[in-house]
Design brief:
By secondary structure, this protein is an alpha+beta fold. The protein folds into 3 domains: 5-58; 69-211, Four Helix Bundle (Hemerythrin (Met), subunit A), CATH 1.20.120; 216-311, no CATH class. The chain is 49% helix and 18% strand. The chain contains 8 helices and 9 strands. Strands 5-4-3-7-8 form a 5-stranded antiparallel beta sheet, with no helix packed on it. A hairpin with a 5-residue loop joins strand 1 and strand 2 (101-102). Helix 6 (152-162) runs antiparallel to helix 7 (167-185). It is elongated. The protein starts with a helix and ends in a 9-residue tail after the last strand.
């Protein structure tokens, strides 16, 4: 009943306005100057009543803010809801700095706590995390070599062009960034309610980004000697074999893989997926570090040059 009350009140005002217009129509037949004055007053009053009833309803769809902010938020919310149905919940930790990672729930709690004192600052912080996680996703999948000089809008355009993720997600990212810029950079005082709504939607987008299935590669051994011959007597100069623990996008398959590299790594570093095709190594062998068993390393391989994720962003 409370939800219907505003609509019933508006309907009542419109009916009153129409009744006044009807009275004015009757008064039109009066030829006296007084009758004309009364008619004009009734018409003006009727129009004011009708406008008073309709304007609040129109305000739901139109606003005086920067480029229809409420309409943008409404469209963003709808698109995010559609995208959310296409991506499983996030399970991986989120890297918020070069040294710290948190779960999605921890990030949500942190952002909401920050929003309680400064919604605008919380929105800015959330935008930074969303951009960082998108860049990390690109680095881990080698969809594009991330560059600090490539702005976020260009990254979104690349995702849209290559269709690596769903249209709804790329649309959500672009719409969120547009709304975020409106709220952060507008010279007008923004309604905290709108900022909080944008934060709520942004947190959902963050969970979707981190829920996108992708392969993970973590250093198991930073570098073993590799050899040109199966007896492991002729060592390849200036080349090591980095052994990676690889987890499949769905998380069900885990395996160890070895690739040639000239880079230095540390155990347990998670790496981006990058290659140097100027260096190609032929068939090689190595001694498995745990069992010392001689195994085939690769038939032919380019140099692996993946970077620790903390160096990517």
């Amino acid at each position: 009943m409370n939800k219907l009350a505003p609509h019933l009140a508006s309907l009542a005002l419109v009916c009153i306005g129409l009744l006044m217009l009807g009275v004015a129509a009757v008064a039109v037949f009066s030829t006296t100057s007084n009758g004309q004055s009364i008619t004009s007053m009734i018409v003006m009053g009727a129009l004011l009543v009708i406008l008073g009833a309709l304007l609040p309803r129109l305000a739901d769809d139109f606003e005086v803010g920067p480029k229809g902010l409420k309409a943008k938020l409404k469209g963003l919310s709808k698109t995010v809801t559609q995208a959310e149905q296409e991506i499983p919940p996030a399970t991986e930790p989120i890297m918020i700095s070069k040294t710290k990672t948190y779960s999605t729930d921890q990030i949500t709690e942190q952002i909401l706590q920050e929003a309680s004192s400064s919604p605008r600052a919380a929105l800015i912080h959330l935008g930074v995390i969303i951009e960082r996680q998108t860049r990390l996703l690109l680095a881990k999948t080698n969809w594009i070599k991330p560059s600090p000089h490539l702005n976020f809008s260009a990254i979104i355009s690349y995702l849209e062009e290559r269709k690596f993720v769903s249209v709804n997600l790329t649309s959500s990212l672009r719409m969120f960034w547009d709304v975020r810029n409106d709220l952060v950079h507008s010279s007008e005082d923004q309604n905290d309610e709108d900022i909080l709504r944008a934060i709520d939607i942004g947190l959902t987008i963050l969970k979707m980004i981190d829920g996108i299935p992708h392969e993970r590669n973590v250093v198991y051994h930073p570098g073993v000697d590799v050899f040109e011959d199966e007896e492991c007597k002729i060592k390849r100069p200036n080349i090591l074999g980095v052994i990676l623990d690889t987890t499949s996008p769905g998380g069900a398959i885990k395996q160890k893989r070895i690739f040639p590299t000239t880079r230095s790594y540390k155990k347990s570093q998670e790496l981006s997926w990058e290659w140097n095709f100027d260096i190609i190594l032929g068939e090689s062998w190595y001694r498995e570090p745990d069992t010392k068993e001689i195994k085939s390393a690769w038939g032919s391989s380019a140099e692996f040059i993946g970077r620790p994720l903390e160096e990517v962003v």
